[in-house]
Amino acid sequence: MSSVNEIRANANQILRQASELQNANMFGPPKKKTNSSEHSSVKLDELIESARHIYERMVQLHPEEAGNWIRYAHFEMKNGDVARARNVFERAVKKVPLADDEEEDDGAEQLFKAFAEFEQWCKDAELCKLEIEVALSR
């Protein structure tokens, strides 16, 4: 069975590769769409799916670890998948136990704070979108 650190290292490696591909596609000179760029897009999608698989495995092996859930949700946010990020947070709330006493590290508190920040970000993003739509309709 893999340790959390091994899984995290694998996830980080896949994320670095995905980020490098994404940056190359976003910041490189404009190119005509070729098989090579299509291949890069497919490779990026495959890396993102591989990272998701690793995150899923990590939260299945250690469902009580709030930090794993938070990192997973942030990963989905960075990839623009708000629905998946919300799903990760909602699943995490059911799995991360509350601390028994004040001395204990309360991962649930960190999780709830991250979830609240996510929802605030979504609300702000939606408000911005509505303001832009109103401005464009004038």
From TrEMBL:
InterPro entries documented for this protein? HAT, Mbb1-like, TPR-like_helical_dom_sf
Alphabetized SMART domains for the sequence: HAT (SM00386)
Q: Which domain of life is it from?
A: Eukaryota
Which molecular-function annotations from GO does this UniProt entry contain? Answer: mRNA binding
User: What does the entry give for GO biological process?
Assistant: mRNA processing
Residue span of region Disordered: 20-41
Q: Which PANTHER family match?
A: PROTEIN HIGH CHLOROPHYLL FLUORESCENT 107 (PTHR44917)
* UniProt protein name: Uncharacterized protein
